[in-house]
Amino acid sequence: MKKRKKGLDKTDKNILIRDILRVRNSRKIYIHFYLMIIILVGVVIYTKLSGRPLDDAAFKLSLAFIIAVLIATEIHRLGNYYQINDDSVIHKNGYFSIVLKRLEFNAISDSHINQTLLERFLSYGDVEIHMFSRENNLIIKNINNPFKFVEFLGSKMGHWKTRTR
Amino acid sequence: MDAQIQIIDQKRAHKKSRIWAFVFLVFFGVLGFLIYTSFYNPSFAKSITGNIIKDRGGTIDIDAVLTPSEKLEINSKMDKIELKISSGNFFVGKEELKLNKASIVIDGFNGKLIFNKNNIEKLDGKTENIFVDGISITSSSNMKILLEKSDFSFLKIHNFHLDDLNYRTSGIVKLNNGKVLVNLNDEDFKIEEFQGDLELVRDRFKLNGIIKKSNLGFIDIKATKNIENKTS
Known about the structure:
The structure holds two protein chains of two kinds.
Chain A: H1 13-18, E1 21-23, H2 31-49, H3 56-78, E2 80-84, E3 88-93, E4 99-104, E5 108-114, H4 117-122, E6 124-131, E7 138-144, H5 146-164
Antiparallel strand pairs in A: 1-2, 2-3, 3-4, 5-6, 6-7
Helix pairs in contact in A: 2-3
Chain B: H1 2-40, H2 44-49, E1 60-66, E2 72-92, E3 95-115, E4 119-127, E5 129-132, E6 135-136, E7 143-175, E8 180-201, E9 204-211, E10 213-216, E11 219-222
């Protein structure tokens, strides 16, 4: 008898049905903020290495800015959450007042990907999921590998159709 | 419906651009402050935040006339050094000056000074200006100078920092403008974080400035605020 391979077998219907994809916004959208941090850290290191006096207040101010930017970007990123499960796409937004949007597969007509040149270069982008009604689209913003996301959504919808037939 | 969505999108874009503008402003402010205080004007931040040395509210004023210590080593920036030497070889950059009974004034000195009551063991560092008998011998703004083993009759150092000084001595110490007066008679004299002037003429060792902590004989006094090393 042939031994079963470990891990996910894409041909196994049951595993695919149980498979859920969860994504958050990519950190790559904060590249400008990270660049600011790198510049500040660079200036501090250069000042130290060149033996110049590093003002305590300026150093503390830079540190506060770096920490504030890191915390703010993480808070912003964790506020959005997208999930593809067996029969729907879910978007959860917010911390205290939460907006939860659920799109059943039977309401989805098609999807497309939006990527600028920089986004393409860094491999992230938006996925726009259209509904038959065309009134209320779901835009999955700034996620890593949008093509894989759409591919996964397509395969999930295919399985869903097979199950509901 | 489309018009409504468009208005909401415009408002969001407007809010986003405001946040961007705010973060950019803060970033350039912090970066500018960092570069300016590190590369152009290191004392700028202190002039904004308030120079603690000028704020004498939380420090102890000291005015002491004592017998000098066996040996004293200062490693700090000094605003000015006034010196009267009887003889010595004075190196300014690569040039050597043979001095005999000369008066030296050194402005903006940064380095090491080791001395006892009548001899300069070593004066080694960089300076902005030097005057020998009133004549400027400055060739560049940051000159290296060296003076070793030279007898002196007068030494005055303006505005320097000393981490601590601890020796047995005799003399009078006035704290906080004479509110506390201590008469030492071969007793321990200990001060920490001194910032101010020093004068040494023969057996008269004079200190005038502020300190963080003192231990005079059996009296301990501690300031409520820390003194920042303004000169280093």
